[in-house]
Amino acid sequence: MSIETRSLATSLFKALDLLSVLNARASGAGIAEIVEAMGLPRSSLIRILDSLIHYGLVARDEHKRYQVTLKFHEWRFEDGDERLKSKFSPLMKRIASEVGEMAVLGRLEGRRIRHLHFEEPDCRVRVIPPTGRKFAMERMAMGKLALSQRSDLIPDSCSKGLLDEIEMAGKQGFAWNRGESEEGIVAWGTWLGETSPLTPMIAVTWPDFRFSEKSLEKVKALLGSVGPTV
Description:
CATH topology of the largest domain: Beta-Lactamase
Order of helices and strands: HHHHEEHHEEHHEEEH
Number of strands: 7
CATH class of the largest domain: Alpha Beta
Oligomer: single chain
Number of helices: 9
Mean pLDDT: 88
CATH superfamily of the largest domain: GAF domain
Largest sheet: 5 strands, antiparallel
Strand content: 15-25%
Structural class: alpha+beta
Helix content: 40-55%
Distance between the termini: 52 Å
Strand order of the largest sheet: 4-3-7-6-5
CATH architecture of the largest domain: 2-Layer Sandwich
Low-confidence stretches: none
């Protein structure tokens, strides 16, 4: 074995091999079939499968058969960001128009939240768009959502209060930023689909003096009208 080969992440290879096995089986595979195909211990494969399920690339049905998900197929597409913008910009425009506040589309990318797109209303007092700016993940609404699914990315410096918020975001499916990243700004974020580190997120932002529960309920109604519910 060469030095180059020894330095490779064999656990990653196992996960990729497992995805290849499942992708080749349209009807999925049970654990016995997977063990036979992979030639690895059942316990090791279950750990890998559970990790892939958590990430959203694999699902297990009621018959305990494993299959790759739609997210796996979307994950392979080129221009994934452009597809997300095209898919969600009509919803974001409705929020900007009917709620009168800015909507931001984002997703987890490595160890940060990447802001893909925003739509903002024509307001005298506006929130500065986040695109191209950097914020600590644990102080963002979308960041707390992502961290609720990727606890390995939570900074050691997080206070107990922030840790509690991140845990609550995982249970509720939404998160808040009340002036933590920028003074005077309130943001509420949620998933645009099933909870997963691969799922895009949306955040709606208000100047704090303009925020109201009625406005938030209107956002939730718009989200519910196109599919995702909160």
